[in-house]
Amino acid sequence: MEGVDGSNSGTKAMIRLENLTKTFPGQTEPAVEDLSMEIYEGEIVVFVGPSGCGKTTTMKMINRIIEPSGGRIFLNDEDVTTTNSDKLRRRIGYVIQQIGLFPHMTIADNIATVPKMLGWDKKRISERTDELLETVGMDRSYRDRYPKELSGGQRQRVGVARAMAADPPIMLMDEPFGAVDPITRERLQDEFLRLQEEIKKTIVFVTHDIDEAIKMGDRIAILREKSVIAQYDTPERILTDPADEYVENFIGAGASLKRLSLSKVRDIKTSEWPVARLTDSPDEVKELLRKSGKDYVLLLDEDRKPKRWVGLEELELNGVPLRNAGWPAVAIVEGKSSLYETLDTMITSYKGSAIVVDDRGRYESIVDFGTVLQAIEEMRPEENRVGGGA
Amino acid sequence: MNSMGFFEYLASRWDDLLELSIEHAQVVLISLLVATAIGVTLGVLTYRRPAAAQAVLAVASAILTVPSFALFGLLIPILGLGYTPTVVALSCYAVLSILRNTITGLQSVDPAVTESAKGMGLSDWQQLFKIEMPLAWPVIIAGIRVSALLILGIAAIAAYVNGPGLGGDIFSGLSRIGGANSLNLVLGGFLGIIVLALVFEVLFALLGRLTTSRGLN
After folding, report:
1. Contact B165/B155 with Cβ under 8 angstroms?
2. What is the pTM of this model?
3. What is the ipTM of this complex?
4. Percentage above 90 pLDDT, chain A
Protein backbone atom coordinates (compact mmCIF):
# COMPACT_ATOMS: atom_id res chain seq x y z
CA MET A 1 0.00 0.00 0.00
CA GLU A 2 1.07 3.47 -0.75
CA GLY A 3 3.31 5.16 1.72
CA VAL A 4 2.86 2.61 4.47
CA ASP A 5 6.09 1.61 6.08
CA GLY A 6 6.91 -1.72 7.62
CA SER A 7 6.14 -0.71 11.19
CA ASN A 8 2.73 -2.39 11.13
CA SER A 9 3.77 -5.74 9.75
CA GLY A 10 2.39 -7.44 12.86
CA THR A 11 -1.00 -5.74 12.65
CA LYS A 12 -3.80 -7.03 10.54
CA ALA A 13 -5.90 -5.04 8.17
CA MET A 14 -9.38 -4.59 9.64
CA ILE A 15 -10.74 -2.70 6.66
CA ARG A 16 -9.48 -3.23 3.16
CA LEU A 17 -10.68 -1.11 0.27
CA GLU A 18 -9.92 -2.36 -3.21
CA ASN A 19 -10.21 -0.12 -6.25
CA LEU A 20 -13.19 1.63 -4.69
CA THR A 21 -14.95 3.97 -7.10
CA LYS A 22 -18.05 6.12 -6.85
CA THR A 23 -19.67 8.02 -9.65
CA PHE A 24 -22.90 9.74 -8.63
CA PRO A 25 -25.83 9.46 -11.02
CA GLY A 26 -25.86 12.22 -13.60
CA GLN A 27 -22.19 13.01 -13.20
CA THR A 28 -19.39 12.15 -15.57
CA GLU A 29 -16.49 12.60 -13.17
CA PRO A 30 -16.18 10.09 -10.33
CA ALA A 31 -16.26 11.47 -6.78
CA VAL A 32 -13.93 8.70 -5.67
CA GLU A 33 -11.65 7.05 -8.17
CA ASP A 34 -9.95 3.70 -7.79
CA LEU A 35 -9.07 3.99 -4.12
CA SER A 36 -7.20 1.14 -2.49
CA MET A 37 -6.05 1.16 1.10
CA GLU A 38 -5.79 -0.88 4.27
CA ILE A 39 -6.83 0.26 7.69
CA TYR A 40 -5.25 -1.58 10.57
CA GLU A 41 -6.96 -3.01 13.59
CA GLY A 42 -7.07 -0.75 16.63
CA GLU A 43 -5.91 2.35 14.82
CA ILE A 44 -7.49 5.73 14.24
CA VAL A 45 -7.12 6.55 10.58
CA VAL A 46 -7.98 10.11 9.65
CA PHE A 47 -9.13 11.03 6.17
CA VAL A 48 -8.25 14.64 5.65
CA GLY A 49 -8.48 16.82 2.60
CA PRO A 50 -10.13 19.93 1.21
CA SER A 51 -13.91 20.00 0.97
CA GLY A 52 -15.19 18.14 -2.03
CA CYS A 53 -12.21 15.80 -2.19
CA GLY A 54 -14.43 12.79 -1.58
CA LYS A 55 -13.28 11.94 1.93
CA THR A 56 -16.80 11.73 3.35
CA THR A 57 -18.02 9.77 0.33
CA THR A 58 -15.17 7.33 0.85
CA MET A 59 -16.03 6.89 4.51
CA LYS A 60 -19.72 6.42 3.76
CA MET A 61 -18.92 3.67 1.32
CA ILE A 62 -17.40 1.61 4.13
CA ASN A 63 -20.84 1.10 5.72
CA ARG A 64 -22.48 1.53 2.34
CA ILE A 65 -24.59 4.54 3.24
CA ILE A 66 -23.30 5.35 -0.21
CA GLU A 67 -23.12 2.28 -2.42
CA PRO A 68 -19.88 2.08 -4.38
CA SER A 69 -20.09 2.02 -8.17
CA GLY A 70 -17.06 -0.21 -8.37
CA GLY A 71 -14.45 -1.96 -6.26
CA ARG A 72 -14.65 -4.07 -3.14
CA ILE A 73 -14.85 -3.58 0.61
CA PHE A 74 -13.44 -6.13 3.01
CA LEU A 75 -13.94 -6.16 6.76
CA ASN A 76 -11.66 -8.62 8.45
CA ASP A 77 -11.09 -10.32 5.08
CA GLU A 78 -14.83 -10.78 4.61
CA ASP A 79 -16.15 -9.27 1.39
CA VAL A 80 -19.05 -7.06 2.45
CA THR A 81 -19.54 -5.25 -0.85
CA THR A 82 -22.85 -6.95 -1.51
CA THR A 83 -23.96 -8.39 1.83
CA ASN A 84 -27.10 -7.18 3.60
CA SER A 85 -26.34 -3.51 4.23
CA ASP A 86 -28.55 -3.17 7.34
CA LYS A 87 -26.80 -6.06 9.05
CA LEU A 88 -23.44 -4.67 7.99
CA ARG A 89 -24.23 -1.29 9.53
CA ARG A 90 -25.17 -2.82 12.87
CA ARG A 91 -21.57 -4.02 13.12
CA ILE A 92 -20.15 -0.55 12.50
CA GLY A 93 -20.52 2.41 14.84
CA TYR A 94 -21.49 5.60 13.06
CA VAL A 95 -21.15 9.16 14.31
CA ILE A 96 -21.90 12.18 12.13
CA GLN A 97 -21.26 15.85 12.73
CA GLN A 98 -24.91 16.73 13.38
CA ILE A 99 -25.06 13.63 15.61
CA GLY A 100 -28.66 12.92 14.68
CA LEU A 101 -29.93 11.77 18.06
CA PHE A 102 -33.55 10.64 17.84
CA PRO A 103 -35.39 13.58 19.43
CA HIS A 104 -38.47 11.57 20.38
CA MET A 105 -36.51 8.98 22.33
CA THR A 106 -34.87 9.23 25.71
CA ILE A 107 -31.10 9.09 25.97
CA ALA A 108 -31.32 5.49 27.17
CA ASP A 109 -33.53 4.52 24.21
CA ASN A 110 -31.19 6.27 21.80
CA ILE A 111 -28.26 4.31 23.16
CA ALA A 112 -30.24 1.07 23.16
CA THR A 113 -31.17 1.30 19.46
CA VAL A 114 -28.68 -1.20 18.06
CA PRO A 115 -28.66 -3.61 21.04
CA LYS A 116 -32.47 -3.80 20.74
CA MET A 117 -32.24 -4.65 17.05
CA LEU A 118 -29.68 -7.31 17.88
CA GLY A 119 -32.15 -8.84 20.34
CA TRP A 120 -30.32 -8.28 23.61
CA ASP A 121 -32.40 -8.85 26.73
CA LYS A 122 -33.60 -5.89 28.78
CA LYS A 123 -31.25 -6.38 31.68
CA ARG A 124 -28.20 -6.52 29.46
CA ILE A 125 -29.28 -3.43 27.54
CA SER A 126 -29.89 -1.51 30.74
CA GLU A 127 -26.50 -2.45 32.19
CA ARG A 128 -24.77 -1.58 28.95
CA THR A 129 -26.49 1.82 28.86
CA ASP A 130 -25.27 2.66 32.35
CA GLU A 131 -21.80 1.49 31.50
CA LEU A 132 -21.68 3.62 28.35
CA LEU A 133 -22.97 6.74 30.06
CA GLU A 134 -20.21 6.32 32.60
CA THR A 135 -17.65 5.74 29.85
CA VAL A 136 -18.49 9.01 28.15
CA GLY A 137 -18.53 10.83 31.48
CA MET A 138 -22.24 11.38 31.96
CA ASP A 139 -24.35 10.78 35.00
CA ARG A 140 -26.87 7.96 35.02
CA SER A 141 -29.63 10.47 35.69
CA TYR A 142 -29.47 11.44 32.01
CA ARG A 143 -31.03 8.11 31.01
CA ASP A 144 -34.57 9.45 30.95
CA ARG A 145 -33.83 12.88 29.53
CA TYR A 146 -34.50 13.83 25.94
CA PRO A 147 -31.89 15.11 23.49
CA LYS A 148 -33.30 18.64 23.50
CA GLU A 149 -32.49 18.90 27.19
CA LEU A 150 -28.76 18.34 26.57
CA SER A 151 -25.94 20.71 25.65
CA GLY A 152 -24.03 20.31 22.39
CA GLY A 153 -21.12 18.60 24.11
CA GLN A 154 -23.42 16.21 25.97
CA ARG A 155 -25.25 15.30 22.77
CA GLN A 156 -21.93 14.56 21.17
CA ARG A 157 -21.04 12.24 24.04
CA VAL A 158 -24.36 10.45 23.74
CA GLY A 159 -23.76 10.16 19.99
CA VAL A 160 -20.47 8.40 20.66
CA ALA A 161 -22.03 6.21 23.36
CA ARG A 162 -24.83 5.23 20.99
CA ALA A 163 -22.36 4.32 18.26
CA MET A 164 -20.44 2.12 20.69
CA ALA A 165 -23.53 0.50 22.18
CA ALA A 166 -23.19 -2.96 20.67
CA ASP A 167 -19.40 -2.80 20.93
CA PRO A 168 -18.73 -2.69 17.19
CA PRO A 169 -15.09 -3.35 16.25
CA ILE A 170 -15.21 -0.52 13.73
CA MET A 171 -16.39 3.06 14.08
CA LEU A 172 -16.87 5.65 11.37
CA MET A 173 -16.79 9.25 12.53
CA ASP A 174 -17.58 12.10 10.16
CA GLU A 175 -16.31 15.36 11.66
CA PRO A 176 -17.70 14.21 15.00
CA PHE A 177 -16.43 17.24 16.91
CA GLY A 178 -17.10 19.77 14.18
CA ALA A 179 -20.25 21.32 15.60
CA VAL A 180 -19.12 22.21 19.12
CA ASP A 181 -17.17 25.21 20.37
CA PRO A 182 -13.35 25.01 20.34
CA ILE A 183 -12.97 24.46 24.07
CA THR A 184 -15.53 21.66 24.18
CA ARG A 185 -14.00 20.21 21.04
CA GLU A 186 -10.58 19.97 22.59
CA ARG A 187 -11.99 18.35 25.69
CA LEU A 188 -14.00 15.86 23.66
CA GLN A 189 -10.93 15.04 21.58
CA ASP A 190 -8.84 14.41 24.68
CA GLU A 191 -11.57 12.30 26.25
CA PHE A 192 -11.97 10.32 23.09
CA LEU A 193 -8.26 9.62 22.79
CA ARG A 194 -8.22 8.44 26.40
CA LEU A 195 -11.23 6.23 25.68
CA GLN A 196 -9.59 4.80 22.59
CA GLU A 197 -6.63 3.71 24.74
CA GLU A 198 -9.05 1.34 26.44
CA ILE A 199 -11.40 0.31 23.67
CA LYS A 200 -8.88 0.01 20.85
CA LYS A 201 -11.45 0.24 18.08
CA THR A 202 -10.60 0.53 14.44
CA ILE A 203 -11.72 4.03 13.62
CA VAL A 204 -12.09 5.95 10.40
CA PHE A 205 -12.25 9.62 11.21
CA VAL A 206 -13.01 12.32 8.66
CA THR A 207 -12.03 15.94 9.12
CA HIS A 208 -10.92 18.91 7.06
CA ASP A 209 -8.79 20.20 9.94
CA ILE A 210 -5.18 19.08 9.65
CA ASP A 211 -4.49 19.93 13.30
CA GLU A 212 -7.32 17.66 14.42
CA ALA A 213 -5.96 14.99 12.08
CA ILE A 214 -2.49 15.28 13.61
CA LYS A 215 -3.92 15.10 17.09
CA MET A 216 -6.34 12.24 16.58
CA GLY A 217 -4.69 10.06 13.97
CA ASP A 218 -2.47 7.05 14.42
CA ARG A 219 -2.26 7.34 10.68
CA ILE A 220 -3.42 10.06 8.33
CA ALA A 221 -4.55 9.74 4.75
CA ILE A 222 -4.20 13.08 3.00
CA LEU A 223 -6.56 13.01 0.05
CA ARG A 224 -6.70 15.08 -3.08
CA GLU A 225 -9.47 15.38 -5.66
CA LYS A 226 -11.44 12.17 -6.24
CA SER A 227 -10.11 10.79 -3.00
CA VAL A 228 -6.71 10.00 -4.48
CA ILE A 229 -4.26 9.35 -1.67
CA ALA A 230 -1.53 11.97 -1.59
CA GLN A 231 0.12 10.44 1.44
CA TYR A 232 -0.91 7.76 3.91
CA ASP A 233 1.35 7.65 6.89
CA THR A 234 1.82 8.43 10.56
CA PRO A 235 1.43 12.08 11.56
CA GLU A 236 5.11 12.21 12.47
CA ARG A 237 6.22 11.09 9.03
CA ILE A 238 3.73 13.30 7.23
CA LEU A 239 4.99 16.34 9.09
CA THR A 240 8.66 15.61 8.76
CA ASP A 241 8.64 14.04 5.33
CA PRO A 242 5.69 15.27 3.27
CA ALA A 243 5.39 13.30 0.05
CA ASP A 244 4.97 16.26 -2.24
CA GLU A 245 4.08 19.90 -2.53
CA TYR A 246 0.37 19.20 -2.22
CA VAL A 247 0.87 17.60 1.18
CA GLU A 248 3.22 20.40 2.23
CA ASN A 249 0.65 23.00 1.25
CA PHE A 250 -2.08 21.14 3.00
CA ILE A 251 -0.14 20.88 6.24
CA GLY A 252 0.41 24.59 5.88
CA ALA A 253 2.83 26.78 7.71
CA GLY A 254 4.33 25.63 10.94
CA ALA A 255 4.75 21.96 10.13
CA SER A 256 7.82 21.76 12.32
CA LEU A 257 6.01 23.33 15.24
CA LYS A 258 3.10 20.92 14.71
CA ARG A 259 5.60 18.10 14.69
CA LEU A 260 6.78 19.25 18.11
CA SER A 261 3.34 18.69 19.54
CA LEU A 262 3.65 14.98 18.77
CA SER A 263 6.80 14.30 20.81
CA LYS A 264 6.93 14.18 24.56
CA VAL A 265 9.74 15.90 26.35
CA ARG A 266 10.35 12.69 28.27
CA ASP A 267 11.29 10.95 25.03
CA ILE A 268 14.12 13.22 24.02
CA LYS A 269 17.62 13.08 25.39
CA THR A 270 17.91 15.65 28.13
CA SER A 271 21.11 17.28 29.28
CA GLU A 272 23.06 16.72 32.48
CA TRP A 273 22.67 19.50 34.99
CA PRO A 274 24.08 20.03 38.47
CA VAL A 275 21.46 19.80 41.19
CA ALA A 276 21.83 20.30 44.93
CA ARG A 277 19.62 20.28 48.00
CA LEU A 278 18.39 23.37 49.79
CA THR A 279 19.86 21.77 52.88
CA ASP A 280 23.36 21.50 51.39
CA SER A 281 25.96 24.02 52.52
CA PRO A 282 26.84 26.90 50.16
CA ASP A 283 30.39 25.64 49.91
CA GLU A 284 29.28 22.22 48.71
CA VAL A 285 27.11 23.89 46.11
CA LYS A 286 29.97 26.12 44.97
CA GLU A 287 32.18 23.09 44.58
CA LEU A 288 29.51 21.32 42.55
CA LEU A 289 29.10 24.35 40.34
CA ARG A 290 32.80 24.64 39.69
CA LYS A 291 33.08 20.97 38.75
CA SER A 292 30.08 21.03 36.42
CA GLY A 293 31.28 23.88 34.29
CA LYS A 294 27.76 25.33 34.21
CA ASP A 295 26.76 28.79 35.40
CA TYR A 296 23.86 27.79 37.60
CA VAL A 297 22.81 25.04 39.95
CA LEU A 298 19.25 23.89 40.50
CA LEU A 299 18.27 23.55 44.14
CA LEU A 300 15.69 20.96 45.17
CA ASP A 301 13.73 20.69 48.39
CA GLU A 302 13.41 17.58 50.51
CA ASP A 303 10.74 16.15 48.17
CA ARG A 304 13.05 16.69 45.20
CA LYS A 305 10.83 19.48 43.96
CA PRO A 306 12.77 22.23 42.12
CA LYS A 307 12.91 25.46 44.13
CA ARG A 308 15.71 27.89 43.17
CA TRP A 309 18.35 28.57 40.57
CA VAL A 310 21.62 29.90 41.98
CA GLY A 311 24.83 31.10 40.30
CA LEU A 312 28.30 31.64 41.74
CA GLU A 313 27.60 35.31 42.42
CA GLU A 314 24.64 34.60 44.66
CA LEU A 315 26.56 31.93 46.50
CA GLU A 316 29.31 34.45 47.25
CA LEU A 317 26.83 36.63 49.11
CA ASN A 318 27.42 35.41 52.58
CA GLY A 319 24.55 35.18 54.97
CA VAL A 320 21.80 34.64 52.41
CA PRO A 321 20.31 31.21 53.06
CA LEU A 322 20.03 28.96 50.00
CA ARG A 323 16.29 29.01 50.47
CA ASN A 324 16.21 32.62 49.34
CA ALA A 325 19.25 32.76 47.08
CA GLY A 326 19.10 33.28 43.35
CA TRP A 327 15.85 33.07 41.43
CA PRO A 328 12.79 30.96 41.95
CA ALA A 329 12.69 27.88 39.75
CA VAL A 330 10.00 28.54 37.16
CA ALA A 331 9.51 27.11 33.65
CA ILE A 332 8.57 23.66 34.89
CA VAL A 333 7.02 21.09 32.58
CA GLU A 334 5.85 17.55 33.18
CA GLY A 335 7.57 14.69 31.41
CA LYS A 336 4.42 13.93 29.47
CA SER A 337 4.25 17.46 28.05
CA SER A 338 4.81 17.87 24.34
CA LEU A 339 7.93 19.50 22.96
CA TYR A 340 5.65 22.25 21.73
CA GLU A 341 4.53 23.11 25.24
CA THR A 342 8.07 22.73 26.49
CA LEU A 343 9.43 25.13 23.93
CA ASP A 344 6.69 27.57 24.73
CA THR A 345 7.58 27.41 28.41
CA MET A 346 11.26 27.76 27.62
CA ILE A 347 10.77 30.92 25.60
CA THR A 348 9.15 32.59 28.57
CA SER A 349 11.85 31.51 31.02
CA TYR A 350 14.91 33.64 31.45
CA LYS A 351 17.46 30.88 31.24
CA GLY A 352 16.21 29.43 27.99
CA SER A 353 15.71 26.09 29.61
CA ALA A 354 12.89 24.18 31.25
CA ILE A 355 12.81 21.87 34.23
CA VAL A 356 11.20 18.50 33.61
CA VAL A 357 9.37 16.97 36.55
CA ASP A 358 7.34 13.82 37.02
CA ASP A 359 3.63 13.78 37.67
CA ARG A 360 4.20 14.47 41.37
CA GLY A 361 6.38 17.48 40.67
CA ARG A 362 9.73 15.79 41.43
CA TYR A 363 12.76 16.79 39.44
CA GLU A 364 13.62 14.60 36.47
CA SER A 365 15.87 16.58 34.15
CA ILE A 366 16.57 19.84 32.39
CA VAL A 367 15.98 20.59 28.72
CA ASP A 368 17.41 23.56 26.90
CA PHE A 369 17.18 24.94 23.39
CA GLY A 370 20.16 22.97 22.23
CA THR A 371 18.57 19.69 23.25
CA VAL A 372 15.29 20.50 21.54
CA LEU A 373 17.02 21.62 18.37
CA GLN A 374 18.93 18.39 18.29
CA ALA A 375 15.73 16.42 18.75
CA ILE A 376 14.13 18.31 15.87
CA GLU A 377 17.13 17.56 13.72
CA GLU A 378 16.76 13.88 14.49
CA MET A 379 13.11 13.90 13.43
CA ARG A 380 14.03 14.91 9.91
CA PRO A 381 14.42 12.20 7.34
CA GLU A 382 18.11 11.47 7.02
CA GLU A 383 18.59 12.87 3.54
CA ASN A 384 17.35 16.27 4.71
CA ARG A 385 19.51 16.56 7.77
CA VAL A 386 21.91 19.45 7.98
CA GLY A 387 24.82 17.81 9.68
CA GLY A 388 23.77 14.23 9.24
CA GLY A 389 26.76 13.25 7.11
CA ALA A 390 24.54 12.36 4.19
CA MET B 1 -98.08 29.50 14.53
CA ASN B 2 -97.04 29.78 18.12
CA SER B 3 -93.50 28.58 18.08
CA MET B 4 -91.55 27.69 21.16
CA GLY B 5 -88.59 29.70 22.38
CA PHE B 6 -85.24 28.15 21.44
CA PHE B 7 -84.44 26.97 24.96
CA GLU B 8 -87.86 25.50 25.36
CA TYR B 9 -87.32 23.72 22.06
CA LEU B 10 -83.96 22.40 23.22
CA ALA B 11 -85.49 21.14 26.44
CA SER B 12 -88.19 19.25 24.58
CA ARG B 13 -85.97 17.75 21.93
CA TRP B 14 -82.55 17.34 23.56
CA ASP B 15 -82.61 13.56 23.43
CA ASP B 16 -83.32 13.62 19.68
CA LEU B 17 -80.57 16.17 19.17
CA LEU B 18 -78.14 14.10 21.21
CA GLU B 19 -78.92 11.03 19.12
CA LEU B 20 -78.49 12.97 15.88
CA SER B 21 -75.24 14.46 17.15
CA ILE B 22 -73.89 11.01 17.95
CA GLU B 23 -74.84 9.83 14.47
CA HIS B 24 -73.19 12.91 13.05
CA ALA B 25 -70.01 12.36 15.06
CA GLN B 26 -69.99 8.71 14.12
CA VAL B 27 -70.14 9.28 10.39
CA VAL B 28 -67.45 11.95 10.68
CA LEU B 29 -65.17 9.63 12.68
CA ILE B 30 -65.60 6.76 10.25
CA SER B 31 -64.86 9.08 7.33
CA LEU B 32 -61.79 10.40 9.17
CA LEU B 33 -60.52 6.87 9.70
CA VAL B 34 -60.93 6.07 6.02
CA ALA B 35 -59.34 9.37 4.99
CA THR B 36 -56.45 8.90 7.42
CA ALA B 37 -55.78 5.43 6.06
CA ILE B 38 -55.78 6.78 2.51
CA GLY B 39 -53.95 10.04 3.23
CA VAL B 40 -51.18 8.54 5.37
CA THR B 41 -50.65 5.64 2.98
CA LEU B 42 -50.42 7.93 -0.04
CA GLY B 43 -48.15 10.27 1.90
CA VAL B 44 -45.80 7.46 2.92
CA LEU B 45 -45.68 6.19 -0.64
CA THR B 46 -44.91 9.55 -2.18
CA TYR B 47 -42.96 11.74 0.29
CA ARG B 48 -39.59 10.71 -1.11
CA ARG B 49 -40.65 11.35 -4.71
CA PRO B 50 -41.46 15.04 -5.16
CA ALA B 51 -43.20 14.54 -8.53
CA ALA B 52 -45.49 11.84 -7.16
CA ALA B 53 -46.20 13.91 -4.06
CA GLN B 54 -47.17 16.89 -6.23
CA ALA B 55 -49.46 14.68 -8.31
CA VAL B 56 -51.42 13.17 -5.42
CA LEU B 57 -51.71 16.56 -3.74
CA ALA B 58 -53.09 18.05 -6.94
CA VAL B 59 -55.75 15.35 -7.16
CA ALA B 60 -56.70 15.74 -3.50
CA SER B 61 -56.95 19.52 -3.93
CA ALA B 62 -59.07 19.15 -7.04
CA ILE B 63 -61.56 17.00 -5.12
CA LEU B 64 -61.87 19.71 -2.51
CA THR B 65 -62.94 22.23 -5.13
CA VAL B 66 -65.97 20.14 -6.14
CA PRO B 67 -69.00 21.66 -4.39
CA SER B 68 -70.34 19.23 -1.83
CA PHE B 69 -73.85 19.29 -3.25
CA ALA B 70 -72.49 18.31 -6.64
CA LEU B 71 -70.37 15.51 -5.21
CA PHE B 72 -73.23 14.06 -3.20
CA GLY B 73 -75.42 14.31 -6.27
CA LEU B 74 -72.83 12.58 -8.45
CA LEU B 75 -72.61 9.72 -5.97
CA ILE B 76 -76.34 8.95 -5.95
CA PRO B 77 -76.41 6.98 -9.22
CA ILE B 78 -73.32 5.00 -8.14
CA LEU B 79 -73.86 4.42 -4.41
CA GLY B 80 -77.48 5.30 -3.91
CA LEU B 81 -78.64 7.07 -0.74
CA GLY B 82 -77.73 6.89 2.92
CA TYR B 83 -74.63 6.01 4.81
CA THR B 84 -72.27 4.82 2.07
CA PRO B 85 -72.27 7.89 -0.20
CA THR B 86 -71.95 10.08 2.92
CA VAL B 87 -68.81 8.30 4.12
CA VAL B 88 -67.32 8.24 0.62
CA ALA B 89 -67.87 11.94 0.01
CA LEU B 90 -66.67 13.02 3.45
CA SER B 91 -63.56 10.85 3.14
CA CYS B 92 -62.76 12.45 -0.19
CA TYR B 93 -62.88 15.91 1.37
CA ALA B 94 -60.87 14.86 4.42
CA VAL B 95 -57.97 13.36 2.50
CA LEU B 96 -56.26 16.57 1.39
CA SER B 97 -55.09 18.06 4.65
CA ILE B 98 -54.14 14.66 6.09
CA LEU B 99 -52.16 13.81 2.96
CA ARG B 100 -50.51 17.20 2.80
CA ASN B 101 -49.49 17.13 6.45
CA THR B 102 -48.20 13.57 6.17
CA ILE B 103 -45.96 14.56 3.28
CA THR B 104 -44.82 17.77 4.97
CA GLY B 105 -44.26 16.02 8.29
CA LEU B 106 -42.22 13.20 6.80
CA GLN B 107 -40.22 15.53 4.58
CA SER B 108 -39.33 17.82 7.47
CA VAL B 109 -37.65 15.10 9.52
CA ASP B 110 -34.04 16.22 10.08
CA PRO B 111 -31.89 14.46 7.45
CA ALA B 112 -29.18 13.94 10.08
CA VAL B 113 -31.66 11.88 12.10
CA THR B 114 -32.58 9.65 9.18
CA GLU B 115 -28.95 9.30 8.18
CA SER B 116 -27.88 8.25 11.64
CA ALA B 117 -30.82 5.82 11.77
CA LYS B 118 -29.73 4.32 8.48
CA GLY B 119 -26.12 4.29 9.60
CA MET B 120 -27.07 2.30 12.68
CA GLY B 121 -28.64 -0.36 10.53
CA LEU B 122 -32.36 0.37 10.78
CA SER B 123 -34.12 -1.07 7.77
CA ASP B 124 -36.32 1.18 5.61
CA TRP B 125 -39.44 0.03 7.48
CA GLN B 126 -37.82 0.47 10.86
CA GLN B 127 -36.75 3.96 9.88
CA LEU B 128 -40.31 4.76 8.83
CA PHE B 129 -42.11 3.33 11.85
CA LYS B 130 -39.59 3.95 14.61
CA ILE B 131 -38.18 7.27 13.53
CA GLU B 132 -39.96 9.14 10.77
CA MET B 133 -43.61 8.48 11.65
CA PRO B 134 -43.24 9.34 15.35
CA LEU B 135 -41.44 12.56 14.38
CA ALA B 136 -44.03 13.48 11.73
CA TRP B 137 -46.97 12.48 13.95
CA PRO B 138 -47.68 15.89 15.53
CA VAL B 139 -47.97 17.38 12.04
CA ILE B 140 -50.13 14.52 10.79
CA ILE B 141 -52.52 14.75 13.71
CA ALA B 142 -52.86 18.49 13.09
CA GLY B 143 -53.94 17.61 9.55
CA ILE B 144 -56.53 15.16 10.84
CA ARG B 145 -57.85 17.84 13.15
CA VAL B 146 -58.32 20.31 10.32
CA SER B 147 -60.08 17.66 8.24
CA ALA B 148 -62.37 16.84 11.16
CA LEU B 149 -63.57 20.43 11.41
CA LEU B 150 -64.03 20.62 7.65
CA ILE B 151 -66.17 17.53 7.33
CA LEU B 152 -68.20 18.18 10.48
CA GLY B 153 -69.73 21.02 8.49
CA ILE B 154 -69.94 19.22 5.17
CA ALA B 155 -71.61 16.25 6.88
CA ALA B 156 -74.72 18.39 7.31
CA ILE B 157 -75.10 18.48 3.52
CA ALA B 158 -75.25 14.67 3.58
CA ALA B 159 -78.92 15.02 4.46
CA TYR B 160 -79.32 15.66 0.74
CA VAL B 161 -78.53 11.97 0.13
CA ASN B 162 -80.48 10.89 3.19
CA GLY B 163 -77.30 10.68 5.21
CA PRO B 164 -77.26 10.44 8.98
CA GLY B 165 -76.70 13.27 11.43
CA LEU B 166 -77.79 16.80 12.14
CA GLY B 167 -78.18 17.82 8.52
CA GLY B 168 -81.74 16.46 8.37
CA ASP B 169 -82.97 18.98 10.91
CA ILE B 170 -81.22 21.85 9.20
CA PHE B 171 -82.59 20.92 5.80
CA SER B 172 -86.15 20.41 6.94
CA GLY B 173 -86.05 23.66 8.91
CA LEU B 174 -84.71 25.60 5.94
CA SER B 175 -87.23 24.05 3.52
CA ARG B 176 -90.18 25.40 5.48
CA ILE B 177 -88.65 28.50 6.95
CA GLY B 178 -91.28 30.69 8.60
CA GLY B 179 -93.19 27.63 9.72
CA ALA B 180 -93.57 26.56 13.35
CA ASN B 181 -90.22 25.75 14.96
CA SER B 182 -88.47 25.85 11.59
CA LEU B 183 -85.84 28.26 12.87
CA ASN B 184 -85.39 26.18 15.98
CA LEU B 185 -84.72 23.12 13.85
CA VAL B 186 -82.01 24.97 11.95
CA LEU B 187 -80.46 26.50 15.04
CA GLY B 188 -80.57 23.19 16.88
CA GLY B 189 -78.64 21.57 14.05
CA PHE B 190 -76.09 24.38 14.01
CA LEU B 191 -75.65 24.22 17.75
CA GLY B 192 -75.09 20.48 17.60
CA ILE B 193 -72.37 20.91 14.99
CA ILE B 194 -70.65 23.68 16.94
CA VAL B 195 -70.67 21.63 20.12
CA LEU B 196 -69.30 18.66 18.20
CA ALA B 197 -66.56 20.85 16.74
CA LEU B 198 -65.53 21.95 20.23
CA VAL B 199 -65.58 18.38 21.50
CA PHE B 200 -63.44 17.23 18.56
CA GLU B 201 -60.96 20.04 19.15
CA VAL B 202 -60.54 19.08 22.78
CA LEU B 203 -60.25 15.38 21.98
CA PHE B 204 -57.67 15.95 19.27
CA ALA B 205 -55.62 18.25 21.46
CA LEU B 206 -55.69 15.55 24.13
CA LEU B 207 -54.92 12.77 21.68
CA GLY B 208 -52.08 14.79 20.21
CA ARG B 209 -50.55 15.31 23.60
CA LEU B 210 -50.92 11.68 24.64
CA THR B 211 -49.45 10.28 21.45
CA THR B 212 -46.57 12.72 20.99
CA SER B 213 -43.22 12.07 22.65
CA ARG B 214 -42.25 14.41 25.46
CA GLY B 215 -39.01 14.97 23.63
CA LEU B 216 -40.78 16.81 20.84
CA ASN B 217 -42.63 19.48 22.79
Report:
1. yes
2. 0.78
3. 0.85
4. 49
